[in-house]
Write a structure and sequence with these properties.
2 domains; about 0% strand; two-stranded antiparallel sheet; 2 strands; mainly alpha; Tetracycline Repressor, domain 2; single chain; 10 helices
Amino acid sequence: MPTQTFLNLNEDKQNQIFNALINEFSNHRLMDAQVARIIKDCSIARGSFYKYFDDINDSYQYALKRVLREIHFDVFAQLKAEPTDSLHAFYVATESFINELENSDYEQFYRQYVLFNQYELKHVEYDYNDLPDDKLILMVNGQKIADRKTIVLTYKWASRAAHQTIRTVLSGGDDKQALSDFSDLLKLINKGLVN
C-alpha cells in the first residue's frame, strides 16, 4: 500500500499518479507493466515512485483497492435489505456491479484483473468463516437458515458463481445469458436449502 509520503501528497497529485496506474494496468498485464511508462505518464521521477510504493505490485494493489472501493457492491447491505431471499441479493449485487463497471472508466482495468492479474497476485479467496454472526444472513423463501456451516458454504459458492458471471461478461460473453445462468443456479441452490 502507498507510503505516508504518497498520502501526504495533495489530492490532485495523488489522482494524477492513480490515473497513470489505471492507464498502465488497463493496457498491460501486471507481469508486463513498467514503472518507466507510469512515471512518464504522471511526470514523476523514478525515485519518487519508490518513495510512494514498495514496487509495481504495491502500486497495483493500491489501484485495485481504490477501484474496488469506488465501484464494488456491498453484498452485505443487499443481504440485509432482502427479507425473504438472500441469494437474490447476490444476484442483485452482481448485476449492479456489472452495470456500474460497464459505465465506468475502470472496465478495462478490472477486465485485466479478472482475466490475468488476480492469478499473478495469487488472489486469496475471502473466508466467510471470519464473518461475525450478524453478517451471516441466509433467508430462503422467508425462512431463516440458522446453521453457520450451511450459510458459509452457501456464501462461498454464491460468491464463486458471482465472480464467474463477472468473468464471463468481461471475457466478452453474453451478459443476459450469464446473468440468467447465474439466476438459475441461485434458484437451484435455494431449492436444495429448503428440501
